[in-house]
Design a protein that fits this description.
17% of the residues lie in helices and 26% in strands. The chain is of the alpha+beta class and 94 residues long.
Length: 94
């Protein structure tokens, strides 16, 4: 389904360099689902987990429709800021 890149074993909750968990969380909207229409829905908001190595290779670690995180080309997404209420909903805190 996904890019076949290695799945992360980390929880994505690192607070490197003094950043808070909230500032680490990012959300993106899918604008191209490539060969993975079952894994990514166009125009849907997805959570991105921090992965500096992937970012260096122009990829994002995205929690997709399977509920697992996989690497996808960064050009398939556009970063978005979401209101706190929406963020809480997306993270299952509501």
């Amino acid at each position: 389904m996904a890019s076949g890149k290695k799945k992360s074993n980390s929880s994505g909750s690192s607070t490197k360099r003094g950043r808070t968990q909230r500032s680490i969380r990012r959300f993106v909207v899918c604008i191209d689902n490539g060969r993975y229409p079952a894994s990514l829905e166009l125009h849907k908001i997805y959570r991105v987990l921090p992965d500096e190595e992937a970012a260096g290779e122009s990829h994002l670690r995205v929690v997709d429709e399977s509920g697992e995180d996989y690497l996808y080309p960064a050009k398939w997404f556009v970063a978005v800021d979401v209101p706190r209420l929406v963020e809480e909903s997306l993270l299952g805190k509501r």
